[in-house]
Each structure stands twice: as C-alpha cells, then as structure tokens.
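Internal QA ticket QA-208
Title: Verify multi-chain structure generation after dependency bump
Assignee: T.L.

Test input:
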Amino acid sequence: MEKFEKLTGIAAPLPLVNIDTDMIIPKQFLKTIKRSGLGVSLFQEMRYDRQGNENPDFVLNKPQYREAEILVTGDNFGCGSSREHAPWALKDFGIRTVIATSFADIFYNNCFKNGILPIILPQEAVDVLMQDAEKGSNARMIVDLEAQTVTSSDGEVFPFEVDSFKKHCLLNGLDDIGLTLEKASSIDAFETGIAQARPWV
Amino acid sequence: MSPKTLYDKIWDAHVVQQDEDGTCLLYIDRHLVHEVTSPQAFEGLRMAGRKVHAPDRTIAVPDHNVPTTAGRENPDQMPEDSRIQVAALDQNARDFGIHYYPVDDIRQGIVHIVGPEQGWTLPGMTVVCGDSHTATHGAFGALAHGIGTSEVEHVLATQTLIQKKSKNMKVEITGKLRPGVTAKDITLSVIGATGTAGGTGYVIEYCGEAIRDLSMEGRMTVCNMAIEGGARAGLIAPDETTFEYVRGRPHAPKGAQWEAALDWWKTLYSDDDAHWDKVVTIKGEDIAPLVTWGTSPEDVLPITGEVPDPASFSGGKVEAARRSLEYMGLTPGQKLSDIEVDTVFIGSCTNGRIEDLRAAAAILKGKKVKDGMRAMVVPGSGLVRAQAEEEGLADIFREAGFEWRMAGCSMCLAMNPDQLSEGERCASTSNRNFEGRQGYKGRTHLVSPAMAAAAAVTGKLTDVREMI
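Actual output:
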C-alpha cells in the first residue's frame, strides 16, 4: 500500500450531506475485476450528462479543482454499499484525503486500506475548511498525519484524532495481511480451541 | 463477572488476540462471497501465492449481476462484463475449493437469503461478506457485517479481521404492531428516528415485545437495514423462534452437537444490568405503514403524511432535502398517497423471502395490476421461488399481472438488466432510495411488500390498511 505522510494540496469543496457510495461510483462500474481505472468515473452521475459530456458546474470539472487531492464534504460521507470501488475511484482520480464531520463505517475502514486518509473534524472546523476550499487552486491545505493536523491556507491549524494502529499502517504503507500472518500461530491455537468448545461451527 | 450485552458476549468469544490499544484480531466463523466484491481479493491471493485459510467456512454465490429471466443459465444472456465477473467467481470457487452455488443450482439466490436458508448462519457466529447488507444475519444473534474487498482478501487469507470494538446501542420496540404494519416499517421507523448516521460507531441490538413477536424472516428484514442507520451491525437475541428456524437446515448441527450448540445459544442474551451507550425506544403501536419520499432512507414518513418542506429541516439537510425533492419530482405539501408510480419491485435481501411474497400475494389475490404499470417479483432464492410456486403464490402474482422472475439482487441495485429508466417512479421493497440506485435518474419509494402490492393495484402509493 502507498504510504501517507504529509500532503500539501488543493482542496475541492463538495458541501452535500449523506454522499453515498452509489454517488461516488455507480454500480455499472463495479463490474470490473480490477482495482484501477475508476477515477474517470468518480461521481459519474454528478460529473457527466447522459451523453458523457462534463457538467461544467460540478466542482471537479472546474479548472481550479481538476488537480484536487483533498475533498471537503458533508456529514456521513460514504454511506451505503461496502464497495471498495469508492475509495479506489477517489484514489485513482488523485484524492488522498477526505475531510468531513462523519463517515460511514465501512467506507472509513476501506480508505485506510488504500492509502487514503479520512479526517473527522467538528462542524465549525469543516465550515472553515469548506470556505477555504472555495478559494480555489491558490489556497493549498496541508495535511500532516504524523502531527495529526490540517492547516488551512491561512495557517489556521486543526488537530484531528486517528486510531493509532491505522495511523501506523498508513504512515508506513503496511500490508495488513502480512501483519496478521505473523500471528498465524495464535490463529491456529484459537481454531484448536473452538474445535473443542464449539465443534458445530 | 461484569454484566455483558449480547454483542459483548459474541465479541469476547471470537477475540484471537488483543493489543494494548484495543485493536483486536477477531475470528470469523462464516465468510460469504459474491461475484462483485471478490475478484480483486482472489487476485490478491494469487499474486501473493496465498491460499484460502478456511475453505470450509467460505460460501460463494453469484447474485448481483445475474439476469432474472428464463434461460439465464446460458452465459450469453449476460453482457460481457457481467459474464466475466460471474465466470471469475466460478473459477475462484473451483480453484480455492470453497462452497459454491452456481446460477443453475436451485439453491442459488441472494447471498443473505441463501446463508440462513442453508443453515450456514447460526447464533453466536461472526459472519462477514463484502456486502453491506450482511447485517441481515444479525437476526440470528450472529455478529454480522459488511466489509470491503481488502478485508475480503484478509479474511480469505487469515480467517480473521483486524477490528476495534463498537459501542452498544439498544433499540427497543415496545408493545404490539397494528394491522398492516410490518418488520419493514419497524426498521424504517428506527432510521427515521435516528437518521442514517444515528448508528455510526455502534452495534444495535433490537429488542422488545414487537421484535420478539416477529418471525425469523421479519427479524432479518429489521437487521438488514441496520446499515442504513449507520450501525456496523444489528442483532436480535436468539430464542425459540430462532432455534425452530435453524433446526434441520442442511448445515445446522445435528444430534449431540445440536444439543451442545443449543446450550450455548441459550446463554446469548444481554444481561439485565448490561451497559448501553445509547438507547432508543419506539412504541410499536405508534408505527404506521411507511414510505420514503426522498433519496436517503431517513427520508421516511407515514403513508398518511405529506411531502415535507426542505425549510423545515436544519443544517446541511435543508439543501439535501431540496435536492431530493428536485430529483424525486415532488413538491412540498403533496399528499404521499397521491404520488403515482410506474413500477413495482418486490424482492431483495430485505424483502425477498417467502413470507414477504405471501404478504404481497394476500393483497393481490383476485386483483389486477393497474393498466400500463410494470410490476415484477424477484424471489430471493431458487428455493423461495419453488416454495412460492408450490403454495400457489406464483399464480396469484402472474394472474395479477406481475412478472415472475428467477432469483437474484435484480432491481435493488440494478447491476443486471432490471433497471428503472430516467424519471421512472418505483414502489420498491428494497433498501436504498439513493439517486440512481435502481437506474439512472430512477425514482425509488421504499415500502413493505404489502404496501408495494397495494401500489401495484391502485397505481399510486397507497395505505395498505384500506385494502385489508
């Protein structure tokens, strides 16, 4: 997995609550058997018309946000389906951080498996960063995972919380499966135990 | 010993190892797999030269892409990308030696219907699947939740997940339900009360008289939509209803093992003085038949209500409601029972079981679908379909003018050819009314099976209580 340490980048404002994973990447793109190539279809129904022409009003189609690496958005981002295609599409487009007041559980976990840092901040902080993002490409935010801070283009600093294990894995680009397989003997012992205690399982 | 919730008990029984910061390695008893969220995970295993750790605990079935029309065993019925995805599951199931129900097997169906039907899902288990509606299996008192593809690969390779424990939330539905009110209305009413993020960070246990009174199928409907309330999982403590449902199923324990299992299952309940981080109580008699008006499952009101004014909300919900009404083509103040629908869809892992079909058929018997409407029933599994045919339900549906389809996810997420067209309005027994969910610019109103049947007869959203 790609490491995430520190990012200085353009933030795109998407001030909508309850953006679900169907909006992030519609089902017709889930038929792929690969992880790559989904960026072009990110936010497809908001980003393009039925003929595939870009909707000029959608934030990521505006010239100043085409290179955005940060998304500032509304409550409960990523709700709905468990499709990991949602973070795959964000990552493929170039988004490395999403900032919101809350995230849906499965989406939040999926981000960490793909080198994306989802940041939960209070409403007041998100409001400030949303306004900052509205300024366009001249306003660059700094996201520092080690320090656990987001810094607005005006230099205002917002600390955030993140689970220590998830942080460790993201900072070092660690592969979960490799880590767990180091504990194979514990898993084997557990299986021996349940074969006795719950043999019907 | 300190008092525990049901969630605490199941969690504790599955912790392989716990780190100082509370991060746990959790053992997974059952891993359900479908064709959409698994190909990249199997590919990851191949590239790393890994095997499936516990193929006997891994069960696969294609459901999302499969056509629901006759003759679908012929792969040429599927578009190329769907065919490749289903073929990949066929191949992966063979290569890795996991249990598999292919399209031409009568036991094939929606993964969350097949698991319980075959007795794979049992009380006290941990169950995961690369699908958010895995919450369904919580109805058995199993800790069940959706995971992403990276975690699918993790479970395939290690039979564990790296997890931190969620908080405990109790949702109590007291008293009795009124006539015409169903499990679907219970689960929608909870989401309406708590919002789609109300359960974020929690595992919900549903309890109370109205929950106890539900059949296993009703309980599955309730738990299925726990995810729509944001919860990691929904649970219902197992009881005689559960044990009776499980007994004799193909993969349920038998003989002495059954007795041993039963002894443990009977300890799976929340202790009286267990700690709850959040409690929600709803009176069963206050729940009416519900419909959704917007594009989030929290946008729900009694059928007797009116389309709300976006200005009546606060914060980001004002703009969200305005956007929803524009998308849905509705105006504030419009009576919900005046909304005309073009299509009715009965099916999905929420409401595609035999009791759902019985409830719809009871309304449809001797009646006709309104002229010009499209109506379809998609049973949740081949076995549900066969049983409905045996009970004469299929004839009732056909005679009323419904299409009688083969099993699959179908129009719930519209990955197969069953889709709404632009502007088409549907009364649907599925679980999500998101923008574009059932087809590009399609408009979804979530309802119970009986309400869907009523809408098919009248051509508009209808209070089913007027027809019973």
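Spot checks passed. The mean pLDDT of chain A is 97.
Status: verified.
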